[in-house]
Design a protein that fits this description.
about 350 residues, alpha+beta, Immunoglobulin-like, 3 domains, 6-stranded antiparallel sheet, 6-stranded mixed sheet, 18 strands, about 30% strand
Length: about 350
């Protein structure tokens, strides 16, 4: 009878000990920084093909206890959309420790079962780069499958795109005294680099000209500004009556070293002595609009936007329902379109 009583006491103590251990156990999800450039497929934590894509770290405390982890990854297209489940998984039992996503199914942490929204997953992976918002939830379970702890994090992706040069305008001429270089902002950049060089007349290969000889500007890092006086960063004297090609490179940090996103090349000319400077007095945002729509509106309208013949107060803007929108609201839309110019369906211009 005493033995039975002692065994019962020991059993109760073990239950209490396990309960206290489980009550103290926790799971914490740490998102690695600089994930603005990575493949969507990397969020398939259960696939060995993503072994090099390290996105998150999972910290389970205390170490050395037997646990199970359930994970779920959701995605929403934008802030106006709701989350949709991409996939979920459940591991087999393993001893708790700190690990990264690339160790799941590639170590002692093995997958027991998974489920996928195959249609949604295929559509998203075709995009290549992440967009929208990804939500990751991890749940910590005891060996019997009872809930212990959970953690949740969201990663917002505003997919970086290459900048576009606003000024100088391609094909225009400028005095050498003060040439402004201005470009559109790219999301997630850590800095911009500028490169420029002379171009001989009738040169068709601008890329080759940009990278030949002794550049006027050789990948000069200007930080995160989006406008600079070109004359301030020249390596040598600027000559009159010459062609110049320039590029702006957005540096985006990320796993594997990140990306360099280069703007389309722009070629402009410096004026000969005594030649009148082309004055660009248009509203900067309308100049941006003119460059964005340069292949979709007439050159006459584009020139009027650039030289200031058309001012913001002369433009009436409306949404798809015919409701008038303010110019500041239009600028917000313009910022989006510069990053997502494939979203432009059609352009209609109605002169007043």
């Amino acid at each position: 009878m005493r033995k039975i009583f002692k065994l019962s006491v020991i059993a109760v103590l073990l239950v209490i000990s396990n309960y206290r251990l489980n009550a103290q156990a926790s799971i914490n999800l740490i998102i690695f920084p600089e994930l603005s450039s990575i493949d969507f497929a990397a969020f398939d934590f259960t696939s060995s093909r993503n072994i090099s894509q390290r996105l998150i770290q999972i910290v389970i405390s205390p170490p050395g206890i037997e646990v199970i982890v359930e994970g779920k990854v959701d995605w929403k297209k934008d802030e106006r959309s709701g989350f949709q489940e991409l996939f979920r998984f459940r591991t087999k039992k393993f001893l708790s420790r700190t690990f990264s996503n690339d160790e799941i199914n590639n170590s002692d942490i093995e997958i027991e079962n998974t489920s996928f929204n195959s249609n949604l997953t295929s559509d998203i992976i075709k995009k290549g780069k992440p967009s929208g918002v990804v939500g990751i939830e991890l749940r910590l379970l005891d060996p019997r499958g009872n809930f212990i702890s959970k953690d949740y994090e969201e990663i917002s992706f505003l997919n970086p795109t290459a900048p576009s040069i606003i000024l100088p305008v391609d094909g225009s001429s400028y005095d050498i005294g003060s040439i402004i270089l201005q470009w559109t902002a790219s999301v997630g950049v850590t800095s911009y680099k500028i490169k420029a060089n002379y171009v001989a007349d009738n040169t068709t290969n601008l890329e080759s000209a940009l990278n030949s000889g002794n550049p006027l500007i050789d990948d000069y890092d200007v930080g995160t500004v989006t406008s600079i006086r070109l004359n301030d960063i020249l390596k040598r004297e600027l000559l009159t009556d010459t062609n110049i090609v320039v590029v702006v490179k957005a540096i985006v940090q990320g796993p594997g070293g990140g990306d360099v996103l280069s703007s389309p090349l722009v070629m402009f000319k410096t004026n000969a002595t005594g030649v009148k400077t082309v004055t660009l007095s248009g509203n900067p945002d309308l100049v941006r609009l003119a460059n964005l729509l340069q292949n979709q509106i007439s050159n006459q309208i584009r020139d009027k936007l650039i030289n200031g013949e058309i001012q913001p107060e002369q433009i009436q803007l409306s949404d798809e329902n015919g409701n008038t929108i303010s110019f500041s609201e239009f600028v917000t839309i313009l910022n989006f379109l510069e990053q997502n110019n494939n979203s432009i369906i059609s352009i209609k211009f109605s002169p007043k």
